[in-house]
Amino acid sequence: MSATLLAGAIAFAQVLLALAMACAAFRLLRGPRAQDRVLALDTLYVAAMLLMLTFGMREANALYFEAALVIGMLGFVATAALAKFLLRGEVIE
Amino acid sequence: MSDDTLLIALLALPFAGAAGALFFPANARNAEAWLAGAIALAALLVAAQFYPDVARAEVLRSEFRWLPELGLGFTLRMDGFAWLFAVLVTGIGFLVVLYARYYMSPQDPVPRFFSFFLAFMGAMLGVVLAGNLIQLVFFWELTSLFSFLLIGYWHHNAAARDGARMALVVTSAGGLCLFAGALLVGRIAGSYDLDRVLAAGDLIRAHELYLPALVLVLLGALTKSAQFPFHFWLPHAMAAPTPVSAYLHSAAMVKLGVFLMARLWPVLAGTDAWIWIVGVAGLCSFVLGAYAAIFQHDLKGLLAYSTISHLGLITLLLGLNSPLAAVAAIFHTMNHATFKASLFMAAGVIDHETGTRDIRRLSGLARFMPITATLAMVAAAAMAGVPLLNGFLSKEMFFAQALAVEGPSQSMDRALPYLVTVAAAFSVAYSLRFIREVFFGPAPVDLPRAPHEPPRWMRFPIEALVLACVVVGLFPAATVGPLLDLAARAALGPATPEYSLALWHGFNLPLAMSVLALAGGVGVYRLLKTQLARGVERTPFLPPIDARAVFDRVLAAVSRRWPRALEAAVGTNRLQPQLRWLAVLAVVAALGPLYRHGLAFGEGASPDVDPALAIAWVVGAACAIGAAWQAKFHRLVALVLAGGAGLVTCVTFVWFSAPDLALTQLLVEIVTTVLILLGLRWLPQRIPFAWTWAGARAAAPRRLRDLAIAVAAGGGLATLAYAVMTRPLPETVSRYFVTQAYPAGGGTNVVNVILVDFRGFDTLGEITVLGAVGLVVYALLRRFRPARESLDAPPQQRKQSAATAADDVLVPGVIMRLMFPVIGVLALYLLLRGHNLPGGGFVAGLTMAVALILQYMAGGTRWAEARLDIQPVRLIGAGLLIAAATGAGAWVVARPFLAALAVDVELPLVGKLQLPSVFVFDVGVFALVVGATALVLVALAHQSVRSHRAPQQP
Predict the structure, then answer these.
(1) CATH assignment at residue A55
(2) B906 phi and psi, to 5 degrees?
(3) Is B854–A19 a contact, with Cβ atoms under 8 angstroms apart?
């Protein structure tokens, strides 16, 4: 019973997270400002990270948690670089 | 010592000497000469001691396996013919070394001379002793290379450079033809081994590829031996130091063509094609060379044309398709080497002691250098074919063969005796001119130096060679008879005829021809005396074709004009057309096999689709299309969108259980984003553009065409991918990798085991390329100067003060700095566990590079480099060394390169640990990836630091 519930919840969560990615992608495409797009990319990263967590639960494999960890740890680098570029015009001064 | 060792020693001695000679100081003339002389003498003795073996008609072979699967090995082979050449090469080489000791000026950098000289001798021996065709071609090209270096020895002299280049281009182009010919011959014979090729003569002559093979081989031989119409390089090569000419153009280099033709005589000769090509080329060279030699005013020029002529004689003999003529050819090869080497040396003595080689300025030298004059006269008489000297004997045999020839054309057969008598008369005429005008007549006036006899030991080589001329001329059967016999038997095999080496054959037609030639030569010289005295620099009756100008024009066309025209026609400096061609070509290339074999799809994909993944894919596809759409209008947006597409790809990899790929994809995504952002800073602003109907309509055809190409390429690739993925997986090597990863590779992470163990050699190659790419990017960026409009600080920075700028990155900056150790530990973790779980050197290296970039981003280049001393170039070098050394380490325990080993080490605290060698290899990969990535990123980052230093207005 609980297993079925968990599977359903995970599937539901995955669809919602994918929809969140779609929303972020909408901002990514529409903008209008560059800052919106950078934020959207960051959101996309977070949503993808969460998607991996749900996937790890479904497969009962710790490896996917690790993948999520790596995204969480390194995903912000691209965002930071983009933000720096917008703020200062160059990434490394 | 065994024969094997001695054969190797014979070949290795000169090369070892060449390497050793380089280490002497530039003015060590005596030491160099001692070394080179000792090497040449030792090689001569080693060669000589093989006499008893080859005299028993034995063929000595010494084989070393190299690629037995391809029938390739390193084989040294010595028979009588090779022995004769080896003795000639080493013996005359020794004499020339002795001569060069006195000839070279103390100002010349002699180490280079003797080093090249010995290396050339080694290459000659390599050709002579080659036991298979490929090896022969290799050493053949090596002689071209070293002769180039020797001819161009005085490289401050433009004539030497041009002559050397011409010799290299002609002979190495011939060498390439020879290579192709050797491949054909080897293919027909079924083996490159010389013995098997020599045994396959009938098969080769009957084969349909015989003619192409013959033409290619002969192109090699005729260019090397300076035969018509490739003779023009030899006179220009006279810009070489005289010892070089004496060696290369008498006994060594130019004799290789003759050597090859004689070597392959049993295989290739005997057909009409052979007689036409070889015979006609030889005849033309013989007649025209002798004629042109008369009109040369440069002593060495005269000798050069005479060399062409005499080699023509030998070639003609080989081309007559008669075994007896081939024996005469071998005999004349020996004789020519002795008298021509001594004549070159005599010319060098005259040049050395008087300061000029111009026959018009020289005169009456016999009274100043009587001994040299006598020696030169004897040698020149041998060249002219005067009785009692060795040249007479071989010329006599030649005349007899010219009379007996039975070629494919009756009229040619009948004309040949007359033609050769005329040419022989010419050679008498130029020999006479040489003697008469240089040594007799009034005393010379106005010479650069006062002429006198050369030093005792400078004359010794000439004396030795002239003595050989006389002794062979007087007692041929007793002295040279056995040598010629064993050489001829080895070269011709069972076809060796009976012949007689006597001095006197009675009154016969050849003798009459000799007498006629001698008398005719004197007559020709008398007739031309006044013409020659006028000193005109031209050969009468020959079309005034300057072979050198033709050569230069051809070379300019091939190396400059045609490539330029080709570049103008199909090349492009713009990226768009290049990419367009690339895409179109890819589509066409894919359509080819599809058209022939059709396209079939498999069973079809599984119908159940995960809704979450489907949505993610829609997102990814939208991002990808958006990136392509925005690439032209807004680079930053395109970059962000590409990041979104990359992320979805990463999610997909995770979804389909490929965590390794996902990890790599994510890291590459991040590093690429930063890299492109760094580059974006230096790209110029987009040119402002207003959208109009007219502009859109004008661009419509181009856009539609590009859209069609894009759809064809992208859709085609998708179709192909679908076709592949809907089929059942074929039984490929991947199954083996999956099952063997743990038992054979000792790791549970198949991807990593493949990378560092199963395909370790590929990985080694890949990281080498990666390191090279990093260095190239660095080198290119060192000279990078940004466009003027992007030279100023970006507009964002101009509005900010230093204080607000610091505020902007204060909080993220702290986080970035704090993350450095954390990410570093992650990198280490990924590296350590790589063999069993997702990770490995490549991923870990990228992670580490990301950590480094963060520090640069947080504090700026100066701040980061004041605290972190990373040496990307050293990391690259260390990585490569570690990886290669790990591979080589397997040799220590007699395993093949890169074989995986495991060592158990006892560590304090940790305990017993199994340390596989592949882990060390992975560490090398890690270091190299960190180095290469950091190098590229730091080189880009440094542009900002540099641009502030650069003057604002160039």
Answers:
(1) 1.10.287
(2) -105, 110
(3) no
